[in-house]
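Appendix B. Worked example

We walk through a single record from start to finish. Start with the input: the chain for Glutaminase, Ciceribacter thiooxidans, length 308.
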Amino acid sequence: MDIQALLDGIVAELAGRRGEGKVADYIPQLAKVDPNQFGIAVTTVDGEVYAAGDAAVPFSIQSISKVFMLTLALGKVGEALWRRVGREPSGTAFNSIVQLEHEHGIPRNPFINAGAIVICDLVLAGYKPKEAIGEFLRFVRSLADDDTITIDRAVAQSETATGYRNYALANFMRSFNNLQHDVDHVLGVYFHQCALAMTCRQLSRAGLFLAARGADPIGGYSVVSEKRARRINALMLTCGHYDGSGDFAFHVGLPGKSGVGGGIMAIAPGKASIAVWSPGLNKVGNSALGTVALEMLASRTGWSIFGA
Ligand code: GLN
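Next comes the structure step. The output line below is what the pipeline stores for this chain.
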């Protein structure tokens, strides 16, 4: 299979559709991003990297970071994490508050905002916010094998200034005793985690352990157990695209995690880790063109987990 030709073909076929969807504007700094960009990268389990389009342009990975923070938190607190966060798809928007009241401040899953905020609270135990952010950044850099990856401070500040909904979620959970640290500290970690800037190349490399049974096949070391990698993939499939998760499974058929920066990381278990980026979002806040590109790639490679 000529993966490079497949990626070049997708970039060429989608050239006329660049700019589709609507760039997230509730985070002012994200509203400034040029909507006509489109990048795609694939890192295979045998260590080959293929890329096309704007695959070397850093973008705000936003909620894709939730996969890496969950992985870090599971390493720290293990299965006890699941006393504080559920594992069910929410069927509601990424920033929804409605289920929290009935479910006593326990978020449905670690990928909606409320769940990711609880994960930050767990990672903060025994640390100052700066230390927790530093540990997170080092972890992602090691996964991507790239020390040039940074956090975009302007994006973090932009969201700190306007993240009213996330403050509401955090305060609400605190009232149920499902946050143990100061709300500002927890959100400080959360906003900086979301503001991580990565390219498609870096992102596809960082996700490789999830395609390779928890091990990094290039570095030759274990990141998480095989069982844990399988479970993270299961959560990405069922919850990674919020109330668009069913549709993403229907069209693409891969575990995936989206972010409002327009990126998607998708995992073809046993085959490859894929990253796409196009800033325009569909109605539920997932990359419009990114989803189309992944559907094309999955159907042309036969990589859907549901069969070729
Ligand atoms: N930082 C964003 C927020 O909290 C992340 C949302 C997303 O990427 N879906 O609103």
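Two observations about the output. The two ends are 14 Å apart (CA to CA). Strands lie at 39-44, 49-53, 59-60, 150-151, 196-198, 215-216, 221-222, 256-258, 263-268, 272-277.
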